[in-house]
Amino acid sequence: MQRIYFEKWIDLNHELTELLSLSVDESINYKIESVGVRAIGSLIVKGEYNDGKKFHDDVDMDVLATFDKIVDQRDFNIKVEDFDYHIKDGNIQIKIEVGIHGV
User: Fold this and answer.
1) Is the pTM of this model over 0.85?
2) pLDDT tens digit sequence for 64-85
3) Which Pfam families does its entry note (predicted)?
4) How far apart (Å, rounded) are the C-alpha atoms in residues 30 and 32?
């Protein structure tokens, strides 16, 4: 498994005082191309803060795994493995660890 890290600042207009929930999910489509398999989609960041205010943000991604790197096309997939966040000045900085399986 290979790892890729994505970082994103989520601007909440400096209003965040209490983070109630935070989740990261993937929405990815796989496409076979002439040189490999391309994973195109986004990492979906959702959460709730303060008195129930909600936020949603996407981190776009486009990953190409060439055929010489792929062990088995059926096993090639991308999953969120972990994430961490920091609150600064009422906004959130999130770091997402994505695992690339099958390479």
Assistant:
1) yes
2) 999 999 988 888 999 999 999 9
3) SPOCS_spoVID-N (PF20918)
4) 7
